[in-house]
Amino acid sequence: MSTMKLVIFTLLVGAIMAQDAGTDAPPTEAPIEANWKEFNGRSFALVPKLSTWADAQRDCMSVNGTLASVHNSQEDDFLKVLAHGQRAWIGYSNAQADNVWLWINSDHSDHNGWCDGKPDQSGGNQHCAVINVSGKECWDDQDCHTPYSFICSHD
Ligand SMILES: [Ca+2]
Q1: pLDDT digits (tens, 9 = 90+) for 5-53
Q2: Ligand 1: centre distance to CA 20 (Å)
Q3: pLDDT tens, residue by residue, 83-129
Q4: What confidence tier does 134 reach under pLDDT thresholds 50, 70, 90?
Q5: Alpha-carbon gap, residue 97 to 142, rounded angstroms
Q6: Which domains are present in the chain?
Q7: For the range 104-111, what are the long-range contacts, defined as Cβ-Cβ under 8 Å and sequence gap of 24 or more?
Q8: What is the dihedral of CA 131, 137, 140, 143, to 10 degrees?
Q9: Quick one: 153 exposed, middle or buried, by C-beta within 10 A (0-12, 13-18, 19+)?
Q10: 66-67 and 42-51 strand pairing
Q11: 85 CA → ligand 1 middle, Å
Q12: For the chain, what is the radius of gyration of the CA atoms?
């Protein structure tokens, strides 16, 4: 009798494990697709996964987006709220030349939200833009290798 119970228990555990194996991506993998939020005809997603700027861009590209471009102050305000006031990478970089800030998706937007005195190239190695710096709701240039959450966009 106890052998029979053991067999049933084993079968049950096996069935539960088989069911688990069939579920989707593990919770550590942020489902960016599920996070898209519409704003004025564009889509943005906060990804709360601490990443370098390059890794963030690669993750955004995996869902047919890029790190976010920002077209105007309305979008800028929307993103600051979307990021819950926390620092987050956007797709703005001067990696090619110190005085030339470019959007990673080749947008022509000339909007920027730099904090007073920024970008400042502090330490000489800051080539990527982050929003919500120091609770000031504006942008700063930071070392692209710093792990931050990030915002993707697609049009
Ligand atoms: Ca800076």
Answers
A1: 555 555 444 444 444 444 444 444 557 777 899 999 999 999 999 999 9
A2: 45
A3: 999 999 999 999 999 999 999 999 999 999 999 999 999 999 999 99
A4: confident
A5: 15
A6: 34-154 (3.10.100.10)
A7: 104/57, 104/66, 104/67, 104/69, 105/66, 105/67, 105/69, 105/153, 107/69, 107/71, 109/69, 109/70, 109/71, 109/72, 111/70, 111/71, 111/72, 111/73, 111/75, 111/76
A8: -50
A9: buried
A10: unpaired
A11: 18
A12: 21
> Beta strand 66-67 with 140-142: parallel, antiparallel or unpaired?
unpaired
The Å distance, Cα 122 to ligand 1 centre, comes to: 5
Gap from CA of 9 to ligand 1 centroid (Å):
60
Place of tokens 């993750």: 59
Residues in contact with 107: Cβ distance below 8 Å, sequence separation at least 6, in sequence order: 69, 71
141 CA distance to ligand 1 middle (Å): 4
